[in-house]
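re: ur question from earlier - yeah i can do the single chain one, its not a big deal. heres the input i used so u can compare w yours
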Amino acid sequence: MYLGIDIGTSSVKAVIADPSGAVLDQASAALTVSRPNPLWSEQNPADWWAATKRAVTGLKPELRSQVRAIGLAGQMHGATLLGEAGRVLRPAILWNDGRSAAQCTALEAALPELGQITGNRAMPGFTAPKLQWVRENEPEIFAATAKVLLPKDYIRLQMTGDFASDMSDSAGTLWLDVGARDWSDTMLTATGLTRSHMPTLFEGNQPTGQLRAELALAWGMDRVPVAAGGGDNAAGAVGVGVVRPGEAFLSLGTSGVLFLANGAYTPNPAGGVHSFCHALPDRWHQMSVILSAASCVDWVARLTGVGGAAELFERLEAADRAPASEYFLPYLSGERTPHNDPHAKGVFYGLDHETDGLALGQAVLEGVAMAFRDGLDALTDSGAEIDSITVIGGGARSAYWGRVLSAALGRPLVYRDGGEVGPAYGAARLAQLAESGASIDDVCVAPPIAAVIEPDDRLTDHFAQRIGAFRALYANLKSQFQEIG
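and the output i got, formated as tokens:
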């Protein structure tokens, strides 16, 4: 058996898969996010570790005893600052934290070559600008920082005692030379750091260490190897077989991602498109990212008193209402692609006396879908060719939302068995590659197709008529967002 662990934002997920790829058990443990100041988003690394232990021990003991390797996936970009002896110096600053916009501007002004080296614009979500913010606002913590780790790599440290990371996750720091697949001394120097602050780099399918003896005993397994793993999106791609040039997926998690696998490094930072290493050797990927996707659905369900996202989807489908007349800008945590605007806000527009809770719910689904359309257009404007798109993540459970998304994107959406499991499943596949020596083509196959949703002509026309107004709303409100701050 192979164990995959995904350190997410809302939970830690653990899955056990057999060599054929069948998921035999899964468990999760919830996490919460702290927002102590406007634009801030933080978590306590100790909470990740406690949730990891709960998730793993929630798996069946008879399966745990057969685990031969562990793979890790996790939320990207989180700045976990450690002092001597691995002591956590402050809460981790997360991917959806927007406090470092000024530092991003300064980095781009100081380093015109930044986009070519890193494949990306400097955005507040990335790790390097966060360290610049700490350097300027918490100098005593910056001076005490001995290591900077990403969330999944902090969990690796607890599991194995090793400071290690993989290429795909490290590509989201702005410290990696993405084409060379190595740390960039230029980028490190610009933020007052050196290679000594960074973990050792591995490809995602390489082992980085062994499970500590006391954990092996507590978890009922051998001292198995732990694979480097991947950032959540690259690991999710491995899970659904999106590893060859031209293959794509859409991830419906807390955030939303359109991911396109590439066979070469093709940086194009314009429009907020990311270019990162894949979790497998000699492969790269591009992606567009919206910071709030399924989290918007959870939010509107709470707002309207519905008992969760699943119930909201059921009510909307049962009501069989016309498409929304209301608009929703889904920028609850600012936005990345294409706006690169941490100050962007969530907005309802077009409300009247007939607007009810279901209308707000429908508007949210459509607003997120149109934000994905912005991301798709950013990718295709950079030369990407995308036909059908595989759907992964928790939001993949709703065929109703799939119909909305397919129409907005104008593309078929492919749903595969186990697609809702997401990055943890890809982490298990990376563990299998690390332990077995099997070929990528043999392990990273696309799971069987469960369903295909084709664009509905009526909904496609609806979105064609509304996308211009959706974009104009942001453009007209942008200066107000900046003033609100």
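The CA atoms of residues 23 and 460 lie 35 Å apart. not sure if urs matches, ping me
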